[in-house]
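We were asked to recover a plausible sequence for a given structure. The inputs and outputs are reproduced exactly as logged, with field labels preserved.

PROBLEM: sequence recovery
POSITIONS: 220
GIVEN STRUCTURE:
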């Protein structure tokens, strides 16, 4: 994902990992604040969590909540077939830099006080090379999220019994029939040829944890 985004949008992506023993993350405080804010509040629908996140922080700046739709979630699994990571010990990475104008290469450090090592991770391909700026991305969920049948039945019973108030049960009355139909084999919607346009940018995007946050590096 990092490789594709850096090439397609002309970004420089820097990802730093926490040093061993430094496990505090900024998101921990955010999660705790949201949980405290909702401690004595009943939650009946997902939309209530969106409102809770937006109002959990009293002082400015408030939390910025980006609502995502299924159309904005992509599956990057196929991109791995164009890359070679097997010879790299990614578990030892402390810093990874991917620059869009140097497609196919990454530089990484296994120690912060050592020089970076450059490696080619995009496999050479015979014939017509893959154009990473226009390669098609598949949607992760071309249909509704799968839900187990016992969960569907339980939600239906909660709505019918009044355990979920009428003002919130409308979400489930509209949502559950679609899911029930899906259990019996709905048609899968084919994703478009490409869900991302070819866009150029000189913007530099840096994702740095440095003791405040920690992310797992996705090499796909």
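RECOVERED SEQUENCE:
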């Amino acid at each position: 994902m990092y490789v594709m985004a850096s090439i397609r949008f002309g970004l420089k992506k820097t990802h730093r990992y926490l040093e061993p023993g430094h496990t505090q993350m900024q998101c921990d405080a955010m999660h705790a604040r949201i949980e405290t804010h909702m401690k004595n509040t009943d939650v009946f629908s997902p939309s209530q969590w969106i409102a809770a996140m937006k109002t959990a922080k009293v002082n400015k700046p408030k939390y910025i909540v980006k609502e995502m739709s299924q159309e904005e979630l992509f599956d990057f699994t196929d991109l791995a077939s164009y890359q070679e990571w097997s010879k790299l010990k990614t578990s030892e990475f402390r810093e990874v830099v991917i620059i869009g104008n140097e497609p196919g290469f990454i530089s990484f450090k296994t120690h912060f006080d050592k020089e970076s090592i450059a490696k080619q991770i995009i496999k050479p391909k015979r014939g017509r090379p893959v154009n990473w700026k226009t390669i098609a991305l598949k949607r992760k969920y071309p249909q509704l999220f799968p839900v187990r049948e016992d969960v569907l039945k339980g939600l239906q019973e909660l709505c019918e019994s009044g355990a979920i108030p009428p003002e919130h049960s409308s979400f489930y009355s509209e949502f559950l029939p679609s899911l029930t139909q899906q259990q019996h084999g709905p048609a899968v919607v084919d994703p478009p040829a490409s869900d991302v346009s070819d866009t150029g940018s000189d913007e530099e995007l840096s994702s740095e944890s440095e003791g405040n946050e920690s992310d797992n590096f996705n090499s796909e």
